[in-house]
Amino acid sequence: MGSGSDVAKNAADMLLLDDNFSSIVNGVEEGRLIFDNLKKSIAYTLSSNIPEILPFIFFILFQVPLPLSTVLILCIDLGTDMVPAISFAYENPELDIMDRVPRNSKRDHLVNSKLICFAYLQIGVIQASAGMYTYFLILNDYGIRPHTLWGLSILKNELPRDTDIYTAANAELVESGQPGCPARTGELHSSCQYGNTKMISAPDTEASKTARKALVGLGWDKTRNAKVDIRLFYAFHRDADSWTKCRWSVEEGSPFFYTASYSSEWHPVCYSTEALKFAQSGYLVSIVCVQWADLIICKTRNLSLSQQGMVNGFGNFGLFFETSLVAILLYVPPLNVALGTRMIAFPHFCVPSFSFFVAIFFYDELRKIWLRNGMKREDGRLRLRGWIVQNTYY
């Protein structure tokens, strides 16, 4: 009791400041609520780790251009995920919180194998699928087919020369060679025209050849490469079906073009290295979109969302916050230069990943239905039984 001696207070497991035994029930409920909300916040935060690490696994194993940069990963961990994760501290207790059996402190830890399985192998896999689907879709819309990307980042070719120019109006399929011109199996020939694009360069000297051969591999992160059609450098490694038609109109101001904040000059996106920036931005947005669903499903551990409701005002603000922040990162011009993001077209903003948002929501609702079907009341307490409980009830 709060009115007891200091020795008794220090030795007690629970201290009742109001000297009222009914406060024991309130204290147990508050303790369970804190434990539940910590689990929910951890489950929400861990789920985004899989879509963040998968781009690097694809980059290492399949040598595809990196779908998500390290800077954008920091934008997720230190930006869009911060407020939603904190919002679980304000989540209301679930209706059955006092009907559960007491927790076994030696077995039921805060982070256990069930939580890891749920966050990584279930929700995380769906989120990573949403990101990769958006990445390949955007590149395909900008003329680069998915199968063209395998091994693309390690192809050894000479960098475009500073004197090379590219005209977007003449963007057509690049052929491997023309009559009178050697097949493009190595050095580019400035006197030959491939497709409808003329490569104009300075005379080849031994010094210039040596300097160019020292710079191998077309860098996807070099600004000047965005002005050059990548098909001119990769066409002889791919067949004619490697490049698809650009799905956007060829007009300045359309999604086919982009302009840097520091310049009024328009540069093409289709068939250029700049398309990767748009694909990475789409990957970032897709993670935010599926994290909406992750935030909603983590509000309860076994009850339906219809039973819990969207009554957490701070959580609702978290949904608005992460959406607004990712929009700022993409559509505020100064940040485009610093973070490497781009103003993606509206059809690429959340639309490709919305089906994965629905999949996550309905998968978890179905899982919780199975959980509640295995719920039995024994000795006045609710006990969850079955395979689904053993493997997914974190």
What's this entry about, in short?
This protein has helices spanning 6-11, 23-47, 49-62, 70-80, 82-87, 113-141, 206-213, 231-234, 274-297, 305-308, 313-331, 333-339, 354-373, 387-392, and strands at residues 193-194, 197-198, 257-259, 266-268, 375-378, 381-384. With 394 residues, it is mainly alpha-helical.
Oligomer: single chain
CATH homology group of the largest domain: Calcium-transporting ATPase, transmembrane domain
Mean pLDDT across all residues, rounded?
A: 77
C-alpha end-to-end distance: 35 Å
What is the count of β-strands? 6
**Tally of discrete structural domains:** 2
Helix content: 40-55%
Largest sheet: 2 strands, antiparallel
CATH topology (level 3) name of the largest domain: Calcium-transporting ATPase, transmembrane domain
Number of continuous helical runs: 14
Low-confidence stretches: 158-205, 207-226
Strand order of the largest sheet: 1-2
Structural class: mainly alpha
Assess the beta-strand content as a share of residues: under 5%
CATH class of the largest domain: Mainly Alpha
CATH architecture of the largest domain: Up-down Bundle
Query: What's the SSE pattern?
Result: HHHHHHEEHHEEHHHHHEEH
The rough form would be described as elongated
Taking Cα atoms only, what radius of gyration do you get, to the nearest Å? 28 Å
